[in-house]
Amino acid sequence: QQKGTYTVLVSDNMSEDGLKPILESSATHVIRENIHETQVPLETIDALLIRSATTVDSEVLKKLPNLKIIGRAGVGVDNVDLNAATAHGVVVINAPDGNTISTAEHTFAMLASLVRNIPQANQSMREGRWDRKLYQGSELRGKTLGIVGFGRIGAEIAQRARAFRMNVLAFDPFLTQSRAEKNHVKAVTLDEILKESDVITVHTPLTKETKGLLNNETLKKTKKGVFILNCARGGIIDEEALYDAIVSGHVKGAGIDVFEEEPAVDHPLTKLPEVITTPHIAASTSEAQQNVAESVSQEVLDYLTGSPAPHA
Ligand code: MLT
User: Fold this and answer.
1) What is the position in ligand 1's atom list of the atom closest to the CA of 233?
2) Which UniProt keywords apply (predicted)?
């Protein structure tokens, strides 16, 4: 194969090390530019590598008549119109494993920070204050954590919660009794999660079924003083409903990494003292980024050169 037979456009920022399979292959010619800014003729592109910043809808796909495969360096494929991709004969693959640990660790870091007011206390000291009373927190030991969505990330969170001596409930329509037992969690209904949890964390993809899963109605069923976490996808929790539930004092605090619309600059939730936020960085570690870039670039290369892609 001649170098450059296949043109691969890497539209989002990705780990250099992780991209080695396609950078070093003699079969690919790699361009690392945003799809909306590149001067490369779009009709020459065979493969597109993206993270969450590039949206691929039917308008974008129409401009890419030669496109064969989209590699999403991450889990969520909600930024790709899968029906349109299928209609255009384009395969979409993701990297389902590579950022599991980073996302679980970030969620746990958010939880620990939230219940001890660490970001707020840190900010107060930066501002020259010494407010010990204001930042009294609560222990995690003995508290009930409700995990909504018990896939890879949910299971890793359960393990960390057990190390903190929390009781763990899990709701997932696909959770079997044996998997629940193996992970030492109690499989329950969504209603039970809502009623019994001191902390609720969501770890589902964003789909028609999960959009607004926590909303005005469901939040009303939660315990007064509950903490809410979303390090999965903006939109699983209705942001206005969460805002209102915090302002009313029903929800005690929230840790939010993802937003309905990103970038979420000056978002109302960032203005509430009970809320701690991060700019969609749960998977942003050098390890996770290397893992996901390596996984998609290897699979894209295999697909272009004729081997099957396991995550299609
Ligand atoms: C994912 O879906 O893998 C994460 O949200 C990380 C990302 O979007 O890059």
Assistant:
1) 5
2) Amino-acid biosynthesis, NAD, Oxidoreductase, Serine biosynthesis
